[in-house]
Design brief:
Elements: H1 3-11, H2 16-40, H3 42-49, H4 53-75, H5 81-104, H6 110-138
């Protein structure tokens, strides 16, 4: 299933709350899996990306906890607008800081130079989808 097909399927509803909850859930799953990989395999993944394994492990723990919070928010019948805005802001901040860190602090490998912007764009995309869904719930 392509990403376009998946996003089309997730957004196919006449209830904006459902669409918002689906995009929060997708964010939680992707973030949680990413975090678990960083926790479980921080050394080989760190070597692959050119990012220290200690930092990657800590980021993984953060991502797992964050994903649990976003996942919990996705289970609410009407997620709090303030909490959803916090998730959107966190996604935008993560995307920006990922690029800044890659350019200013990290010396990524080729794989890291591809992965970091790719995951930043994915996280920014979640933020955009969540923002549009939240806006539709208040319209």
């Amino acid at each position: 299933m392509s990403a376009t097909t998946l996003l089309g399927t997730l957004s196919r509803t006449d209830r904006p709350q459902t669409m918002l909850r689906r995009f929060l859930a997708l964010d939680a799953v992707v973030t949680g899996v990413n975090g678990l990989v960083y926790v479980i395999d921080s050394k080989p993944v760190g070597n692959l990306l050119g990012i220290g394994s200690g930092l990657l492990f800590e980021l993984g723990v953060f991502l797992v906890v964050y994903a649990a919070g976003v996942g919990y928010l996705a289970t609410r019948k009407q997620p709090s607008a303030l909490a959803v805005k916090a998730v959107i802001d966190a996604n935008v901040l993560w995307a920006v800081l990922s690029i800044v860190a890659m350019l200013a602090w990290f010396s990524p490998t080729t794989a890291g130079a591809v992965w970091v912007p790719m995951q930043a764009m994915t996280v920014a995309g979640f933020g955009v989808l969540q923002f549009l869904s939240l806006r539709a719930t208040t319209a």
